[in-house]
């Protein structure tokens, strides 16, 4: 299985380097891969339906507990077949749809990368590696949605999709890590037995909420649904593959996969039912107001995903069976509808339902496929759609005390979806063919065959449900931890309430289809509600957030150096001040200090006055000279306190600095009076506070005992071992000679810097 | 005995320095201040340093101190000269009771050249010379 | 500066100050001084010369660009530090001492060469900085 | 050649005195070192006859010290008494001294004695501008300088 | 009175007072030249102080600092004059 | 005396920060220098100060016979002073160059970089 | 031979700098010396790393003075790792510089100073002496000053004034902290300090000293609210300089924080909380800044800040898992950020601007280079299994275990913002149609470069991209290193014993 996944990645990398050589032939090569993989996974059907679970384990990063553990059971098998099967058809379809496109090789690269990621996602047993693949699907989806990268809209949609699914991805990551932390493993298989412990863990709600965050964003549940219609900017094969058949189902997959781990808890069930219900009804209503075929399909897809979440939320055997069947149903008919929409778009140049009519005359095989898919979507027998709908009604109708309400909702949804299916699958083909479409040509069989195959699937599986019952549905239900023995798929369940509901659904739906025609007016009408939609709310909050970000950034990063310094000082003063006043013991022992002599006092006074003068003088040169006096006073202090070497150095450096200043200053203008009174007060307070803290700190430190171990060692060995009597110099060239080596390096670098700063003049063309 | 010499030398040195300092405060213009301080301080420092040589009575210290004194004697007048000159450049006025100023108008503002004669006079003379030269060929 | 007095004095001050600087360099191990202050005095000598007689004269006197003293000095100090590593398998900066005493200098050891390196770097740095500024002033 | 040799010896002496170590090696080192220093800095040529003028130098030193102390006391008096007794001004003194060394030495001596300050030498080296605290008349002042310091300095240096 | 006391109570205080007097001139100015004179003189006094202090503490090594002060103070004055001359050059 | 030194150091720090907070580039550099002086004195004082006993072993002995000042802070300060010198001279030239290119000493005017955000 | 091994990277860099100074104007020699030297340096660093990996922490006593008296150099796993990463980034930038830095700059000491900077970085990682660390920091600072001003353009100067002032301020605070530490303990050896600081009774003083270190290193590491110098300066120098700055300079601050707060100041709850709060605000502030900026390099600058937050968060959480996350992130970030700034340089050479608004069309013009650019970009986001992803696991686990939800929240927030920012950058720089910009006269566009220069620019990006792919896909190895480092850091007794014996 690892190889199967790697094959996709390898192929996409391979394309990057060799894409140029293959040109047109690339399609054959590309389509071969999903086909091979489909065959590979299909051969497991027998073993899986016998109840076997095939696992594979590759150690990857044991340090994190992250491994490439793969599980092939009912659930992952179904998804794998869908991914590779529909993948194959989409690959084939693409070869015609994007024939001669400049970047066809890249497109296949992304597509196969996506396929591989998707396979990895559904096969992974390890939550972290699942997350890895999850993110890869988001990223490859980003590249695919933005494939028409010169279109502003495409780029925007790709970004929104990435942002929303990115939030979900991170939510999944955190959820997985938390789950891993409380269970001690990332292996889903190992977690299966821990359901009660997890459910009783105090973090259960948090973890489930995080997992929901992931599933709802990926599967476009209300209120995160809006990225999906936007993602329809992608080329049709992408919409088909990612946004109806596979990627959006990753959230569904996750919920199904974790049902045995996290399910069977009130929070889990209620939330899923509510969110699913809102999503399915909300977006089903939206389909009524769309004139773009892809828009209709997008909203009906969201609605279908809502139905799935709704079913998973019920969590009963019936509901999960219904969900399992509905996944297949939806994959078949929705993929078909998308593909034919692509054909219509490709051949006629429009997807506008208000003008598309009578195309059966020019696109007959496509019309057949559309008709079958529409039937399946509407749940009209003998398509498999009917079975799916019956199961859905069955489980909902028997679900607890809210059953009537929930059934009502699902029926309304189904009615609306029937309308949507008809609009997409039947309407373009019926009626008279307008003049403008008369010259429409049949596309290459590579394009129309895939939808036909899928549409035929809708019919065949409907007539022979046994084909999928034992092989796919039962194993799938059992891999969700439930007993699937009693499942029997059949078209006719006998006359009962469920059948009645079906009849009502079909009847009302058909009436709706014939009475309500999609118009621009309707579309405009619903647009009025846009300002209350989640998308608008999110967009507005994003705008607000962006404004806030700008404000926040500019508040701190305002370009004024003095504000930066002030902020840093405030921070430092606050922390040190707090520490000092809360913990210091103020044990200053004045007796331990030496008495003040006349000359010390005089020197200090000189220094103090010079400092004041340097700070407040208005003359630049006087400030520099006065700084010279500060340095001089320090030099005298160094003499007084036994540091002749220091005094020498201090004084010579001080003089040199003054000289440098003098040499530089004579080109500069006079000081201007720049800061106002208030600013001076603020700065004064700030600096005095800092000075005070330093003084207090010094007094505190001076009260502490002294340790002279190191300097005593130096003193004792300076002459005996290091052959010098000036201990300071011995330290500089021997004990701590490395410092000195660096110190002269600093000087050399500074000199080079000065040299370059003054001599180097860049040519205009070399500047930024 | 040496202590007494040390005391005398150091005290007189200090006093000369004090004079210089008071001079610096009291003298009315920059030139006078320079004038007063250079010498008094030089002498004062010299005496203090001599006191140190007497105190330590060590040959290497003595030579070193003499080197310092020599150096001060060499550089102090140059400093004074430079500052004095700089004062004149920066337009420091003479004390109002000064009795003469031969330097007035001798510096060329542009080239900072110092003439031995008045710049204006020089110009006049050159003009005259030119006129004379002009006249010559006529004769 | 156009002053005969300073110009004349600088001719005599230069050798005097240079000698002082070497003196201070060599005795640093025993009394206050050392490579750093020594180097500063040496550079002051040249700076003074440059002030008095113009930069071009001083540069002519120096013959090489003062900046070139920096790598030389660094190399010398580095060699003094790295010699024990290369030849004695001792750690970096380990003092290597010539047994016995030399006149003036006292003990001769790698520390002295190190200090000499410091001296040269300081001269190079100070002169580079001040000369560059003066030139572009 | 001769001058260089002399300067060399003098510098060596200063070196030995400075280090305070009168050993043979130190003389050699001092000699070698000052040799290199001189070689490095020799651009122009000086012209000094060291030995002939030695007695005059000593005499001059005593004269100078005398002037120094005398004038210092004068200034001290000026500073310490409440009223100003001075009559300062800048005087132009024509120079007999010709070489740089002569002029420099003269100017410095004038500066070092209290009450007077050499401000500058004219670019054509013809005159020296001196600031003085006590001027009675221009001629008298010029005379005192020319017959005092200048004469003695020129005696030594020529 | 010992020499130590003499230096401590008489010589050094005189020098310290001189230092403060000069500081006064430095603050008062009025011209930049006055400040430079004050700076030069205060350093010169520093040399004297160090001489006195070395007698006081009986440590000749401080005299080396005096030597450096003498050598370098001169350069400072030269630089300032250089500056003033350049500044006034039109 | 230590108390006075402590206050002096506090004043140096305060003055340094105050000058760094001004708008003039020259004052900024002066502030940095003053702050550096404060830091050096701080090392010096916290290493504990001793009067009149430089850490130089007397000529006639191999080890100290009496009390001596701690040489370690002195060596550290020496290094710090020299490093500061390198930085300061660089900074001073930076002022010069900045003035030439940006044509101002006012730090508030040096914000062109923010215009092209 | 291996006795002095710890010093070899330092000696080599010093040697290179000096040799390069001798070759002052011969820039083609300098190019060769720098690249060859950097290759040797990578070899030496690998040698050092593997030696440390086999034999544990090694020390060298400079001057052969026994600890704690002399300066000591210590290579534990953390130091050896960082030295290796410096060598790798250094090699990449050395090659990139040869191609992208204009000859005028090369003639004014670019390469010697570049190697001094690397020397400083290595030294800071290897030293075991707090004052020596200060000196190394100064080497780094002054080299970076020179590099950031080299050329002296207007923007460069304006940026460098801020860079200069705030970094100097940091140094002063650092020096103040060292002074206090010396006043309290009389020692400078970090291991010895660890022992002596632990024995101080006045904990308040210890706490204040720790805060001073926090501020000093916090400024260098560009942590909120101390990072202001960074966004105002990092976009101004040549890209090669920005690359080494972006990759390594702030990390040395992070390293210092890690070292000091795992070795000397351990177990102060107050400080740990402060660090955590700072980390969270850093994550947020950096992210917000990156979101709103429109200059590619400014965006990257803010992302540097943002991602420093991860590392600091790990330090603040202060568990073995968290520190391992910090170390892993550090390793990843050095490589990727270096690469990113080289990418910005490449883009600048292609288009003559770094303004996101004016960029576009890379995808059409340079399809393969776009894919190369994608690797560092998406590694930075941490799209799994690329390198930025793994350390977040450790950090989130640590946050969960400590029940610091707000820290986890900030980590997630920063990840999301990074994702959005990078996607935005990708969409507008790579995808968006090319905007016709006025052609810059005499500007050396990428297309016009000779092949060898092109190769010198592209090869280091490929090199670093491969390294970051290795970090991602070979996360097992990196995690082993990180865990071992975390283990060593959490038990400071190990370090102390390695240095002081016993
Ligand atoms: Na020394
Ligand atoms: Na006089």
TrEMBL record, chain A:
Domain (NADH-Ubiquinone oxidoreductase (complex I) chain 5 N-terminal): residue spans on this chain: 61-108
Domain MrpA C-terminal/MbhD: 605-670
GO CC entries: plasma membrane
Any GO BP: monoatomic ion transport
Domain NADH:quinone oxidoreductase/Mrp antiporter transmembrane: 124-410
Domain of life: Bacteria
Residue ranges constituting the MrpA C-terminal/MbhE domain according to the UniProt record: 680-759
Transmembrane spans: 28-46, 78-98, 107-124, 159-183, 203-228, 268-289, 296-313, 319-341, 362-387, 399-424, 445-468, 491-516, 564-584, 596-616, 621-641, 647-665, 685-703, 740-758
Main localisation: membrane
InterPro entries in UniProt: CPA3_Na-H_Antiporter_A, MrpA_C/MbhD, MrpA_C/MbhE, ND/Mrp_TM, Proton_antipo_N
Keywords assigned: Antiport, Cell membrane, Ion transport, Membrane, Transmembrane, Transmembrane helix, Transport
Lipid bilayer topology: Multi-pass membrane protein
A molecular function GO annotation: antiporter activity
Keyword Nucleotidyltransferase: no
Subcellular location: Cell membrane; Membrane
Name of protein: Putative monovalent cation/H+ antiporter subunit A
Native organism: Gillisia hiemivivida
TrEMBL record, chain B:
PANTHER family documented for this protein: ANTIPORTER SUBUNIT MNHG2-RELATED (PTHR34703:SF1)
Protein name: Monovalent cation/H(+) antiporter subunit G
Annotated organism of origin: Gillisia hiemivivida
GO molecular function, one term: sodium:proton antiporter activity
Phylogenetic lineage: Bacteria, Pseudomonadati, Bacteroidota, Flavobacteriia, Flavobacteriales
Domain of life: Bacteria
Coiled coil: 100-136
Membrane-spanning intervals of the chain: 6-25, 37-55, 61-83
Keyword terms of this UniProt record: Coiled coil, Membrane, Transmembrane, Transmembrane helix
TrEMBL record, chain C:
Subcellular location: Cell membrane
InterPro entries: CPA3_antiporter_subunitB, MnhB
A cellular-component GO term for this protein: plasma membrane
Membrane-spanning residues: 12-30, 36-55, 67-88, 108-133
Record carries keyword Transmembrane: yes
Principal location listed in the UniProt entry: membrane
Protein name as catalogued: Na+/H+ antiporter subunit B
Species whose genome carries this gene: Gillisia hiemivivida
From TrEMBL, chain F:
Recorded topology in the membrane: Multi-pass membrane protein
InterPro entries reported in the protein's UniProt record: CPA3_antiporter_subunitC, NUOK/Mnh_C1-like
Membrane recorded as keyword: yes
This protein's UniProt keywords: Cell membrane, Membrane, Transmembrane, Transmembrane helix
Compartment list: Cell membrane
Transmembrane spans: 6-21, 28-46, 75-95
Pfam families xrefs: Oxidored_q2
Main location: membrane
Family: Belongs to the CPA3 antiporters (TC 2.A.63) subunit C family.
Cross-referenced PANTHER family: ANTIPORTER SUBUNIT MNHC2-RELATED (PTHR34583)
Protein name: Na+/H+ antiporter subunit C
């Amino acid at each position: 299985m690892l190889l199967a996944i790697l094959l996709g990645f390898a192929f996409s990398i391979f394309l990057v380097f060799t894409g140029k050589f293959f040109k047109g032939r690339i399609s054959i090569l590309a389509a071969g891969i999903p086909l091979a993989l489909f065959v590979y996974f299909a051969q497991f059907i027998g073993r899986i339906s016998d109840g076997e679970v095939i696992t594979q384990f590759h150690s990857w990063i044991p340090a994190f507990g992250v491994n490439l553990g793969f599980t092939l059971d009912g659930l992952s098998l179904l998804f794998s077949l869908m991914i590779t099967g529909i993948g194959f058809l989409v690959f084939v379809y693409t070869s015609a749809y994007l024939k001669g496109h400049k970047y066809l090789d890249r497109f296949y690269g992304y597509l196969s990368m996506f396929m591989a990621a998707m396979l990895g996602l559904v096969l992974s047993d390890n939550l972290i590696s699942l997350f890895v693949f999850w993110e890869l699907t988001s990223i490859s989806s980003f590249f695919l949605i933005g494939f028409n990268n010169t279109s502003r809209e495409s780029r925007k949609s790709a970004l929104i999709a990435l942002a929303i699914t990115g939030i979900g991805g991170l939510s999944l990551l955190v959820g997985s890590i938390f789950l891993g932390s409380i269970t001690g493993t990332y292996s889903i298989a190992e977690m299966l037995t821990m359901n009660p412990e997890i459910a009783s863990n105090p973090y259960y709600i948090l973890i489930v909420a995080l997992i929901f965050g992931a599933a709802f964003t990926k599967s476009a549940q209300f209120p995160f649904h809006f990225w999906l219609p936007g993602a329809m900017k992608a080329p049709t094969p992408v919409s088909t593959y990612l946004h109806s058949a596979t990627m959006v189902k990753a959230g569904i997959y996750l919920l199904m996969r974790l049902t045995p781990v996290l399910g069977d808890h009130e929070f889990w069930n209620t939330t899923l039912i509510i969110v699913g219900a809102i999503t399915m009804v909300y977006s089903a209503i939206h389909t009524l107001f769309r004139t773009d075929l892809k828009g209709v399909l997008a909203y009906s897809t969201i609605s279908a995903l809502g139905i799935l979440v709704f079913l998973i939320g019920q969590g009963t055997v019936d509901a999960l069976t219904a969900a399992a069947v509905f996944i297949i149903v939806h994959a078949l008919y929705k993929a078909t509808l998308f593909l034919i929409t692509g054909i219509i778009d490709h051949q006629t140049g429009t997807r506008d339902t208000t003008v598309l009519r009578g195309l059966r005359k020019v696109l007959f095989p496509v019309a057949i496929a559309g008709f079958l898919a529409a039937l399946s979507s509407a749940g009209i027998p003998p398509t498999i759609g009917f079975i799916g709908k019956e199961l859905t009604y069955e489980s909902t109708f028997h679900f607890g005390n809210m059953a009537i309400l929930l059934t009502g909702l699902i029926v309304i949804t189904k009615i609306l979806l029937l309308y949507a299916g008809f609009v997409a699958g039947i309407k373009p083909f019926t009626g008279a063919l307008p003049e403008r479409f008369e010259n429409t040509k049949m596309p290459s069989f590579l394009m129309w065959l895939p939808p036909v195959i899928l549409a035929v699937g809708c019919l065949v599986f409907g007539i022979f449900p046994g084909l999928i019952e034992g092989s796919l549905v039962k194993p799938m239900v059992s891999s969700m931890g439930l007993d699937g023995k009693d499942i029997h798929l059949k078209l006719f369940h006998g006359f009962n309430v469920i059948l009645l509901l079906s009849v009502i659904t079909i009847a009302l739906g058909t009436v709706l289809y014939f009475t309500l025609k999609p118009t621009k007016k309707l579309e405009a009408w619903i647009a009025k509600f846009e300002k209350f939609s989640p998308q608008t709310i999110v967009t507005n909050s994003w705008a607000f957030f962006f404004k806030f970000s700008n404000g926040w950034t500019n508040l701190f990063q305002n370009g004024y150096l003095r504000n930066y310094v002030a902020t840093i000082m405030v921070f430092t003063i606050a922390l040190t001040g707090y520490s000092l006043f809360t913990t210091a013991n103020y044990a200053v022992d004045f007796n331990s200090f030496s008495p003040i002599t006349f000359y010390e006092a005089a020197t200090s006074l000189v220094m103090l006055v010079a400092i004041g003068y340097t700070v407040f003088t208005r003359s630049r040169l006087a400030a520099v000279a006065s700084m010279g006096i500060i340095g001089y006073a320090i030099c005298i202090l160094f003499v007084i306190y036994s540091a002749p070497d220091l005094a020498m150095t201090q004084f010579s450096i001080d003089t040199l600095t003054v000289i440098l200043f003098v040499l530089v200053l004579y080109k500069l203008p006079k000081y201007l009076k720049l800061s106002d009174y208030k600013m001076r007060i603020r700065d004064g307070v700030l600096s005095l506070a800092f000075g005070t803290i330093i003084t207090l700190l010094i007094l505190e430190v001076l009260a502490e005992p002294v340790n002279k171990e190191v300097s005593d060692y130096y003193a004792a060995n300076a002459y005996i071992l290091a052959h010098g009597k000036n201990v300071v110099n011995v330290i500089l060239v021997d004990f701590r000679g490395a410092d000195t080596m660096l110190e002269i390096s600093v000087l050399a670098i500074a000199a080079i810097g000065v040299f370059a700063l003054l001599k180097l003049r860049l040519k205009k063309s070399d500047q930024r | 005995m040496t202590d007494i010499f040390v005391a005398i030398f150091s005290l007189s040195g200090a006093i000369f320095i004090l004079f210089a300092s008071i001079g610096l405060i009291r003298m009315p213009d920059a030139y006078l201040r320079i004038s007063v301080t250079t010498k008094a301080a030089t002498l004062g420092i010299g005496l203090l340093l001599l006191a140190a040589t007497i105190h330590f009575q060590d040959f290497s210290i003595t030579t070193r101190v003499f080197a310092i004194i020599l150096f001060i004697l060499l550089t102090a007048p140059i400093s004074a000269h430079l500052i004095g000159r700089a004062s004149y450049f920066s337009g420091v006025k003479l004390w109002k009771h000064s009795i003469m100023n031969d330097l007035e108008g001798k510096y060329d503002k542009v080239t900072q050249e110092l003439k031995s004669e008045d710049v204006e006079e020089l110009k006049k003379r050159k003009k005259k010379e030119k006129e004379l030269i002009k006249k010559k060929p006529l004769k | 500066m156009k002053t005969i007095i300073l110009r004349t004095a600088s001719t005599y001050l230069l050798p005097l100050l240079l000698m002082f600087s070497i003196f201070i360099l060599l005795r640093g191990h025993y009394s206050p001084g050392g490579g750093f202050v020594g180097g500063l005095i040496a550079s002051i000598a040249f700076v003074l010369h440059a002030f008095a007689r113009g930069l071009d004269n001083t540069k002519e006197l120096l013959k090489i660009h003062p900046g070139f003293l920096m790598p030389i000095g660094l190399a010398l100090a580095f060699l003094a530090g790295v010699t024990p590593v290369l030849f004695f398998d001792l750690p970096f900066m380990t003092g290597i001492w010539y047994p016995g005493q030399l006149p003036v200098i006292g003990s001769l050891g790698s520390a002295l060469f190190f200090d000499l390196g410091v001296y040269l770097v300081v001269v190079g740095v100070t002169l580079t900085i001040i000369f560059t500024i003066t030139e572009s002033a | 050649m001769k001058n260089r040799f002399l300067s060399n010896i003098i510098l060596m002496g200063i070196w030995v005195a400075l280090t305070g170590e009168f050993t043979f090696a130190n003389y050699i080192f001092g000699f070698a070192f000052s040799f290199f220093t001189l070689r490095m800095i020799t651009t122009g040529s000086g012209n000094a006859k060291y030995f002939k003028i030695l007695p005059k130098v000593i005499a001059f030193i005593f004269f100078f010290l005398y002037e120094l102390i005398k004038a210092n006391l004068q200034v001290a008096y000026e500073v310490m008494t409440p009223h100003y007794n001075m009559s300062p001004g800048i005087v132009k003194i024509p120079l007999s001294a010709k070489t740089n060394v002569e002029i420099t030495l003269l100017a410095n001596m004038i500066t070092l004695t209290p009450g007077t300050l050499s401000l500058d030498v004219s670019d054509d080296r013809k005159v020296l501008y001196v600031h003085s605290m006590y001027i009675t008349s221009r001629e008298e002042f010029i005379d005192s300088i020319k017959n005092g310091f200048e004469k003695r300095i020129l005696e030594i240096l020529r | 009175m010992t020499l130590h006391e003499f230096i401590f109570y008489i010589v050094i205080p005189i020098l310290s007072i001189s230092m403060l007097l000069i500081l006064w001139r430095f603050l008062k100015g009025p011209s930049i030249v006055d400040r430079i004179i004050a700076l030069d003189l205060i350093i010169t006094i520093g040399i004297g102080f160090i001489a006195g202090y070395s007698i006081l503490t009986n440590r000749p090594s401080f005299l080396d600092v005096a030597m450096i002060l003498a050598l370098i103070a001169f350069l400072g004055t030269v630089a300032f004059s250089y500056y003033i001359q350049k500044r006034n050059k039109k | 005396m230590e108390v006075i030194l402590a206050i002096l150091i506090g004043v140096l720090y305060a003055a340094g920060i105050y000058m760094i907070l001004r708008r003039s580039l020259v004052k900024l550099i002066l502030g940095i220098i003053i702050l550096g002086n404060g830091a050096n004195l701080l090392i010096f004082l916290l290493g504990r100060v001793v009067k009149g006993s430089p850490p130089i072993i007397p000529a006639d002995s191999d080890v100290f016979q009496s009390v001596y000042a701690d040489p370690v802070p002195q060596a550290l300060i020496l290094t710090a002073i020299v490093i500061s010198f390198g930085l300061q001279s660089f900074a001073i030239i930076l002022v010069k160059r900045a003035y030439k290119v940006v044509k101002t000493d006012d730090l508030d005017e040096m914000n062109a970089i923010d215009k092209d955000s | 031979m291996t006795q002095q091994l710890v010093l070899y990277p330092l000696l080599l860099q010093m040697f290179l700098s000096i040799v390069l100074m001798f070759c002052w104007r011969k820039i083609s020699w300098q190019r060769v010396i720098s690249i060859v030297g950097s290759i040797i340096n990578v070899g030496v660093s690998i040698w050092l790393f593997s030696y440390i990996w086999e034999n544990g922490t090694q020390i060298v006593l400079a001057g052969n003075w026994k600890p704690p008296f002399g300066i000591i150099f210590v290579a534990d796993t953390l130091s050896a790792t960082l030295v290796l990463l410096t060598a790798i980034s250094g090699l990449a930038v050395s090659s990139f510089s040869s191609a992208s830095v204009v000859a005028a700059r090369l003639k004014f000491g670019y390469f010697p100073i570049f190697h001094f900077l690397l020397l400083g970085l290595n030294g800071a990682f290897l030293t075991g002496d707090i004052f020596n660390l200060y000196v190394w920091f100064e080497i780094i600072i002054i080299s970076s000053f020179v590099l950031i001003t080299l050329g002296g353009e207007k923007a460069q100067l304006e940026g460098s004034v801020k860079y200069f002032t705030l970094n100097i301020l940091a140094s002063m605070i650092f020096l103040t902290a060292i002074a206090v530490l010396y006043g309290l303990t009389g020692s400078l050896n970090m291991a010895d300090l660890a022992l002596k600081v632990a024995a101080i009774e006045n904990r308040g003083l210890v706490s204040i000293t720790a805060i001073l270190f926090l501020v000093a290193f916090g400024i260098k590491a560009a942590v909120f609210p101390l990072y202001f110098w960074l966004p105002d300066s990092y976009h101004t120098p040549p890209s090669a300089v920005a690359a080494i700055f972006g990759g390594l300079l702030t990390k040395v601050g992070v390293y210092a924080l890690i070292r000091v707060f795992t070795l000397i100041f351990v177990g102060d709850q107050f400080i740990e909380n402060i660090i955590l709060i700072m980390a969270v605000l850093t994550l947020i502030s950096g992210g917000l800044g990156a979101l709103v900026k429109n200059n590619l390099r400014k965006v990257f600058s803010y992302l540097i800040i943002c991602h420093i937050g991860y590392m600091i968060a790990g330090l603040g959480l202060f568990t073995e898992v968290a520190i391992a996350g910090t170390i892993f992130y550090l390793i990843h970030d050095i490589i990727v950020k270096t690469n990113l700034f080289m990418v910005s340089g490449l883009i600048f050479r292609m288009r003559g601007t770094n303004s996101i608004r004016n960029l576009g069309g890379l995808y059409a013009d340079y399809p393969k280079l776009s894919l190369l650019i994608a690797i560092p970009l998406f590694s930075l986001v941490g799209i799994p299994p690329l390198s930025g992803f793994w350390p977040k696991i450790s950090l989130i686990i640590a946050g969960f275990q400590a029940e610091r939800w707000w820290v986890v929240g900030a980590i997630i927030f920063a990840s999301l913002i990074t994702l959005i920012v990078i996607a935005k950058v990708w969409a507008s720089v790579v995808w968006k149609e090319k905007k016709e910009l006025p052609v810059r006269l005499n500007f050396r566009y990428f297309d016009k470069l000779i092949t060898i220069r092109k190769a010198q620019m592209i090869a280091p990006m490929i090199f670093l991209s491969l390294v970051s792919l290795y970090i991602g896909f070979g996360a097992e190895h990196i995690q082993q290193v990180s865990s071992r480092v975390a283990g060593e850091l959490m038990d400071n007794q190990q370090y102390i014993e390695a240095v002081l014996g016993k």
